[in-house]
């Protein structure tokens, strides 16, 4: 008997995906560069389903039914290229290589084009949900050809998370679309985490609350419109006591946030596409600032304001909840705009509502809120920004006084809230009838004759700044 699908690369993510497939009744070929991992998978979890262990790539390929479905789960970059080169020569036209790692979408586009030349399908697939999701139901974002999705989709949908019976998996679009969407997912993840962290910081330092009390606040928020996996785990982390010292766990962790690169990619690509994802950018920069230990040590005695406390803790909690919700709407609005811009740039025809649908479960940013986003894009697929959807417009309208109070209090107390404040600046920037960009245009024209457009006439103009200051056509 042959396997319906194979997984090569059996570190924890690959192993868990293979187990998930086997638990759903699919025979899975399994292979790892060093065969110890293959053996231990079968020894420990062989009872969960049908595994066909292979010692060599040749054996692995021979054990797969056709068209072959080969899932590779190895480190992004050179290791992925090496594994592709190992397996592609053994495959036949119509077979599929699925890259389920966190690859850069530009690499995925390159690999897809190269393998297409060789008659093979290459399916760059975003998988979110960490180890636990891979085992019990992740959110899956496959790119690649429509044809490959027909052969692969049913298997992937089967092992994905389900919300109201709907799988958290759909064909995102051709070539690199799946990895692009996964990248933006991670960018939104960074920004959501940063906003939650700022909410905690405000409650702690402007509210004078202890981590355990703040955990209770997050638990309560998690029963409302902020209900999400990230809020839920934040409460868990804040409630945790360090066993060694008996102090709050969060106080015992070095305050330098690390990153593996997907958030940075999101911002780099957003800069190229010209999409202002300021919330994601501030989240990446906040992690980066936190990591500059020597710089922070040099600056730690710089003067700040005298500490201020909020007048009422209850009112602060309510204000912060609203500020968090409004900022979160902005962060998602920016991320979805980046998906739309990428889709337009690369002709992917991505349905934003479908992305919100597959993010409702399984992934790190899963949240009740995504149902609202889905509804917004179902009502208007070409919505210019989530902020103008009726539901979100009303939510921000109700939240904005609180939002402004929170940003003001933070500035007055010297508490850094780059996420909250950039979100508010973005909102006010979009709303503005007139932006000082007009003055920037004047400055550019003054020093570099870069020209400007006028509000009252078509064309491009230049003022003779060094001469008689008359205007000429630019
Ligand atoms: C997921 C996660 C996963 C991982 C990221 C974040 O969707 O399951 O996003 O991909 O946790 O790589 O990693 P960093 O915070 O280390 O960049």
From TrEMBL:
Q: What is this protein called?
A: 6-phosphogluconate dehydrogenase, decarboxylating
Asked if the record carries the keyword Ion transport, the reply is no
SUPFAM superfamilies in alphabetical order: 6-phosphogluconate dehydrogenase C-terminal domain-like, NAD(P)-binding Rossmann-fold domains
GO MF entries: phosphogluconate dehydrogenase (decarboxylating) activity
Q: What is its EC number?
A: 1.1.1.44
Instruction: Please provide the record's keywords in A-Z order.
Output: Gluconate utilization, NADP, Oxidoreductase, Pentose shunt
Family (UniProt): Belongs to the 6-phosphogluconate dehydrogenase family.
Assembly description: Homodimer.
Function, please? Catalyzes the oxidative decarboxylation of 6-phosphogluconate to ribulose 5-phosphate and CO(2), with concomitant reduction of NADP to NADPH.
Among SMART domains, the record links this protein to: 6PGD (SM01350)
Organism of origin: Planosporangium thailandense
Q: In which pathway does it act?
A: Carbohydrate degradation; pentose phosphate pathway; D-ribulose 5-phosphate from D-glucose 6-phosphate (oxidative stage): step 3/3
Domain 6-phosphogluconate dehydrogenase C-terminal span(s) in chain numbering: 178-466
Task: Identify the Pfam families for this entry.
Answer: 6PGD (PF00393), NAD_binding_2 (PF03446)
Gene name per UniProt: gndA
Its organism's taxonomic lineage begins at:
Bacteria, Bacillati, Actinomycetota, Actinomycetes, Micromonosporales
Superkingdom classification of source:
Bacteria
């Amino acid at each position: 008997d042959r396997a319906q699908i194979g997984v090569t690369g059996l570190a924890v993510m690959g192993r868990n995906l293979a187990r998930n497939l086997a638990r759903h009744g699919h025979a899975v070929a399994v292979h790892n560069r060093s065969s110890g991992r293959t053996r231990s998978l079968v020894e420990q979890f062989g009872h969960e389903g049908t595994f066909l262990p292979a010692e060599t790539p040749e054996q692995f390929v021979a054990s797969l039914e056709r068209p072959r479905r080969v899932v590779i789960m190895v480190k992004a970059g050179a290791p992925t290229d090496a594994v592709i080169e190992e397996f592609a020569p053994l495959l036949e036209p119509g077979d599929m290589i699925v890259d389920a790692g966190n690859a850069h979408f530009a690499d995925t586009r390159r690999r897809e084009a190269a393998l297409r030349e060789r008659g093979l399908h290459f399916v760059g697939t975003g998988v979110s949900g960490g180890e636990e999701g891979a085992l019990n139901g992740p959110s899956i974002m496959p790119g690649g050809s429509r044809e490959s999705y027909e052969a692969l989709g049913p298997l992937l949908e089967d092992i994905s998370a389900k919300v109201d019976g709907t799988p958290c998996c759909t064909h995102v679009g051709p070539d690199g679309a799946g990895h692009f969407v996964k990248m933006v997912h991670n960018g939104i993840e960074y920004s959501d985490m940063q906003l939650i962290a700022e909410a905690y910081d405000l409650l702690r330092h402007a509210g004078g609350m202890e981590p355990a009390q703040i955990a209770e606040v997050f638990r309560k928020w998690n029963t409302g419109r902020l209900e999400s996996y990230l809020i839920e785990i934040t409460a868990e982390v804040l409630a945790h006591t360090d066993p060694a010292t008996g102090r709050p766990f969060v106080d015992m962790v070095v305050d330098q946030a690390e990153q593996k690169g997907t958030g940075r990619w999101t911002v780099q690509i957003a800069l190229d596409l010209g999409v202002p994802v300021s919330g994601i950018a501030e989240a990446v920069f906040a992690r980066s600032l936190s990591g500059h230990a020597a710089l922070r040590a040099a600056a730690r005695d710089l003067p700040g304001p005298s500490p201020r406390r909020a007048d009422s803790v209850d009112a602060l909690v309510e204000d912060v909840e609203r500020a968090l919700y409004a900022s979160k709407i902005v962060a998602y609005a920016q991320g979805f705009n980046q998906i739309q811009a990428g889709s337009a740039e690369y002709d992917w025809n991505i349905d934003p509502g479908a992305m919100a649908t597959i993010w409702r479960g399984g992934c790190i940013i899963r949240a009740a809120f995504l149902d609202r986003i889905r509804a917004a894009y179902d009502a208007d697929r070409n919505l210019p920004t989530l902020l103008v959807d009726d539901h979100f417009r009303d939510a921000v309208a109700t939240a904005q006084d609180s939002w402004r109070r929170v940003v003001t209090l933070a500035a007055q107390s010297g508490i850094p809230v780059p996420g909250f404040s950039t979100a508010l600046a973005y909102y006010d920037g979009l709303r503005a009838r007139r932006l000082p960009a007009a003055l920037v245009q004047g400055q550019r024209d003054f020093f570099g004759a870069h020209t400007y457009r006028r509000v009252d006439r078509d064309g491009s103009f230049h003022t003779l700044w060094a001469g008689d200051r008359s205007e000429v056509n630019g």
